[in-house]
Amino acid sequence: MIIINKFNFRSEFKRILAGVICFSIVVMGVPMEIKASIKEPTLLITDYKPIISESVDASGFKHPGIGLTKDILENMRTEVLTQKEPWYSYYKEMILSPAASKEIKSNNENSKDPTKPEITTFDSKQVQSKFITDALNSYTQAILYYITGDEVYRKNALHIIRIWSQMDPTKYKYYTDACIHSGIPLNRMVTAAEILRYTSCKTESLKWTDKDTTDFTNNLINPVIDTLQHDNNHFMNQHLYPLLGAMAGYIFTDNRERYNEGVEWFTINKTAKDQGQNGSIKQLFRLVDTDIVTGEKLEEPRVQHAEMGRDQAHGSGDLTNTAIISRLLLAQGTKVDPVDGTASTKADAVTSYELLDNRILKAANYFWQYMLGYDTLWTPLAAHTDINGNPTVIYRIFSDSYRGRMNTANFWDTYYYYKYTLGIDMEKEAPYFAEAFSKRLPTNYYYQGKAISAWDNVDGGGDFWLYIPKAAEAEGTKYLPKEQPNSALIQIDERYAAFDNNSTTKKEGDISYVEVKATEKGSKIVPLSLSYPDRTKPCIVGLKFRTNGTAKLEMSKEINSTPYTTLTLPDTNDEWKYITYDMGTDKVSFSQLDKDYSLLYFNIVGAGTTVDIDCLDVQASKHLTVPTFKAGNSDLNLFTYVGSAASITLDFSASVSSTNAAVTYQIDNKPKFANLNKNTGEFSWIPTEAGTYSFIVSASDGTTVTTKNVKVEVSNDRKSAVDLVIEPYNRNESYESSTLYEYKKVYEETIKLVDNNSTDDEFYSSLSKLKNAVDKLKLLTPLLKDGSINYPEIVTSSTGSYLPTLVDDNPNSYPVVPIGSDLYYTFDFGANFRVSATAFDIQSRMGFGEFSAGTAIFGSNDGTTWIRLTDGTTKYSEEKQRLNVKEEYKNTQFRYFKMEMVDPQRSIDPNINFNLYEPSEFKIFGERYEVAE
């Protein structure tokens, strides 16, 4: 027996999966980890090495050949056993999967007789769930058997396969989305069977038999393919998922006719009824030369990944699926005609990767250009067409859903093939793909606070490392992703993109960080693959940084969009500090940043300040203490005048909850003659010159710093001070009466103090009240840029926290299911208000015109009795549509409005569940009124 060297479970991820409890403590606010005593596991390799019996059947298929050939398997095993990188690290990560346990059993075995299946009918998601789990388990166990020679793994894999080989072929029935979710598990289980079928073993009962082949073929492979998968008209990657399962089955069963058909379906799919949704290489990774909306020709055609108009989760799945199917073709030595994509042995035949001028490579590079945060061009294209080829659904823009999320992109063997087999200079020909490769995630990682294994991904791809060619030995650990130490810390330097020459990665001792030179226009970087824990409650995030001056750090969803958070960074005198912010939806709405968006654009503004950024702690509330100003952390805006005898005296003292840590204070950009006590936070100043003075006060407990922006506007006299305070008030606007009454009352009180003999203390007290009254003024009918009512802050709605998505002009943001499962949303303007509407604008979720088609609008004053306000309903369209209010109701005031799908439209996709209501925009045009209580 060979014992491979022990390895340390360094990451929290490994400790979690090993069942080891870890403890953490906080010392002076710095998160530290006490490493538990861990019994390090050993990787046991028996003295038996399974032998592969390679063969070529009568149909010309090579076996084993479902992606993993004899050469690939032998190379992988050799690299693992000799502990060569990167294979060895990936192997160590794989064996942490629950699927690698020796205690594995079939999820479909009968509790009374474990040799029999519990369920023999394949017609539901219940069975599908069992199939998915057992497929991964059998695949993992078969791989481990071949590597270790331990027959326990072979026994487990064979047991699972023999259970599923007893399914009743007459009891298969298609169910919703069966084509999507049966492909990966069939591919995995068939690959496992292929390994067992062509590898040796010592125990007679564990040998693969002809009966195994017959039962597995007739009772699982063929009925799954024929009932759930064999169709070339599915939507985009819904075409590829069943195909990658079916193609594995064709190889195992020596079905050359179906295999060749599948090859063409993969490459061109000429006979697909709808070429807009065709999921072939040619149509999915489309060469676009014309704007489908305007008819305008492009100066230079470009390859666009069509399903990136839907979302990036599906987009990454497309590329993973093409990698999986390409593995099958490469294993069989299959090449295709360079034009029609049919299997070919002619001299000009090419591999699927070379097809259409390396189309897959260009699509992958295009995908990563967008996913890494770079500006990427998009030309509208058809996502559905009618029988005449006319577009019925158009993807007009990129979908920003899942942008930046790297964890579902598992097509790295594609990179290795282009680089090592085809010898392509990836940095030159596919620079964004190359950049993504260098910044990819480890195979065990954290997402939204949870430990996740790429190997276990239900959508496949985590096994890419099995296909790494021997030539990659030269890389060693050079491109091997670093382990993530725990679920809280995100190292910015490991994954970010830069948009100018003002940032660079540096290392100082054990700390790697990003150094950014702040500029007046802003220096921009974007951390990648970022996620937060639960944002439905306060989600405190800590940023570790240091500076040699002051700067502002603006955070936004897009490179030029309005920041949703701005941090004022004090001068830390080159000492590392944390500063915190809240990503809870009370502070940053889903409209500003949805939970699956994984880019964080930083714009760092300053006058040449050096800002070093180390990491983010997305669970800072567990690790950091945060100083809080007793007067509140909000910005402070004060007004005074020259000649006042009163000193501006402010208390900037702060406290730190649950600790007695001392707090020290600092002022940056201090006005002349101003004083701040660094131990107490007391501030005093008598201005001597008119002007606007801005400075920063910070409080620190030694680890975490909290800043407060202060602006003091100094006028020449009392009257001008009052004028500055009331500048936001517009006499031509209508305000809510209670706020307007308070403003006018305080204004009259304050203006009386301008010219009389009142003291400065009396005047400033009244001026402060006036400033507060101005800040609390509320417009009666607040408007958006398009003239519609800006209602999210003045209504309650059944959309919940997703309400802002209905007015953000983003067709890709919308209230999610099951919120709209009743096919309507209500909006309540409150007991004291009514609205008379003239029109409503409605737009469906991008790419799904049916999800708001058939909508009508209703009004009510009791929330029970509803009056239909619009004659027509919205049509099947992604365009913004206007529904005008009937003439007889245009001056009628209502407290409640309801948008309801009263006439659901047929979906182009027959698998769509109509119990969905997902409008992306709902604009109300009209006027708001107050009513007597």
Automatic annotation (TrEMBL):
GO cellular component, one term: membrane
Keyword DNA repair: no
Molecular-function annotations in GO: calcium ion binding; lyase activity
Parts forming coiled coils: none
Pfam families from the UniProt entry: He_PIG
Keyword terms: Lyase
InterPro entries: Cadherin-like_sf, Chondroitin_lyas, Galactose-bd-like_sf, Ig-like_fold
Protein name per UniProt: Alginate lyase
Species of origin: Clostridium puniceum
